[in-house]
């Protein structure tokens, strides 16, 4: 009868997945594709809904128990996060589970992480709900608007970076850097699975 057990298990798994995959949405903002890559990987692994950030559609988040927001860091700012953060209570989602991830090319040392968390109003967010993932930058295939913005920011980007790290950070922008790593999403998957199990 073992051939009977397997289909049943499969059906149970399917049912579980069907009720699971509508509990989580991933909202992302990406300019040059690095954050989008992570968004795709995470959404695929979790079988969850995914949408590009749009101010008009932000309210959809209220239909989900778990909200993952991912974006890229620009001069320390997690782009577009402000709009979500400022409206959490308007959307009635201040009690939903929120996970934020940000991609960047500056090494997320404890010091830099504390800076980014603070600047973006994420101090209250538990450490296992806030992730800084290695991003990607290359002047050769970066949108010209972003390149211009980067130039305009100049040294300001490095002010919050520890002296020991500044040279490395500058070289990542100058020589190009690709830190994109599939493994980096694993703690996020684990956290969402924990939320799903709760
Ligand atoms: C204008 C500009 C400012 C940036 N500022 C930062 C920064 O403050 N900290 C950081 O770690 N990376 C910074 N970066 C690097 C981007 O965050 C990184 O390239 C990111 O992975 C891009 O994501 P995307 O490909 O999804 O747009 C900056 C890049 C640009 C173009």
Automatic annotation (TrEMBL):
This is Flavodoxin domain-containing protein. InterPro entries: Flavodoxin_CS (IPR001226), Flavodoxin_dom (IPR026816), Flavoprotein-like_sf (IPR029039). It comes from Mogibacterium diversum. Residues 1-20 are annotated as: Disordered. The lineage of its organism: Bacteria, Bacillati, Bacillota, Clostridia, Peptostreptococcales. Pfam families: Flavodoxin_5 (PF12724). GO terms for molecular function: electron transfer activity; FMN binding. Residues 25-150 form the Flavodoxin domain.
